[in-house]
Design a protein that fits this description.
single chain, 203 residues, 4 helices
């Protein structure tokens, strides 16, 4: 399986990081070794002094697809979750300044939190989902998938032009504003439509 991530999919987050609005979805990959094992804490890597949380809605692909049309994209997933794209922001900035790939800042071990999966029929329409990240009982990120620049089905269609989607692939659909650093002993709780999907301690 592969983890396909989307960057710059919420206008408020683009402004927050002073990035340019892209003409097409920004796509990058994380290796499967980036997934944080269930029940394990997130350990801040020794190579970074500025790891940020980025909460995102996730979808899991349930069939093989290539060159998928947007009108058929909804058939390629039946589960939704919430996760965190942990980012070593200082390392990412160094790599971007040199025009280098920044997988090291995004794909390190433990950098992908994948919460519990929910059947999409149990939820409101996928383009109207409320989600939030709480840090130490304070809401730090909160948004709705209606605010995505590219909706989930559009993302699946776009990604499938370049990568064959396979069963079990996970798509991270982008983060809204509110990203920020994590510190030792922080507790991060992700909620989708009020349902707690992950609870992570930082060490």
């Amino acid at each position: 399986m592969k983890i396909i991530c989307i960057g710059r999919n919420y206008t408020d987050h683009i402004a927050e990081l002073e990035n340019e609005k892209p003409e097409n979805p920004v796509v990058f990959l994380k290796p499967d070794t980036a997934i944080l094992l269930k029940g394990q804490p997130f350990f801040i890597p020794e190579f970074s002094q500025d790891v940020h949380h980025e909460v995102e809605v996730l979808v899991r692909i349930n069939r093989i697809g290539k060159h998928i049309q947007p009108k058929f994209a909804s058939k390629y997933y039946d589960e939704i979750s919430l996760g965190i794209d942990f980012t070593a922001r200082d390392l990412q900035a160094q790599l971007k300044a040199k025009g280098l790939p920044w997988e090291k800042a995004k794909g390190f071990d433990g950098a992908a939190v994948v919460g519990k999966w929910i059947a999409k029929q149990e939820l409101p329409p996928v383009d109207k989902l409320n989600f939030a990240l709480n840090k130490n009982n304070e809401t730090v990120q909160e948004s709705n998938t209606a605010l995505m620049l590219w909706k989930i089905d559009e993302l699946i269609a776009y990604i499938s032009q370049f990568f064959t989607l396979k069963i079990g692939d996970i798509i991270f659909t982008g983060t809204p504003a509110g990203v920020g650093p994590v510190a030792i002993n922080d507790v991060l709780v992700g909620k989708l439509e009020g349902r707690e999907l992950f609870n992570i301690k930082v060490k």
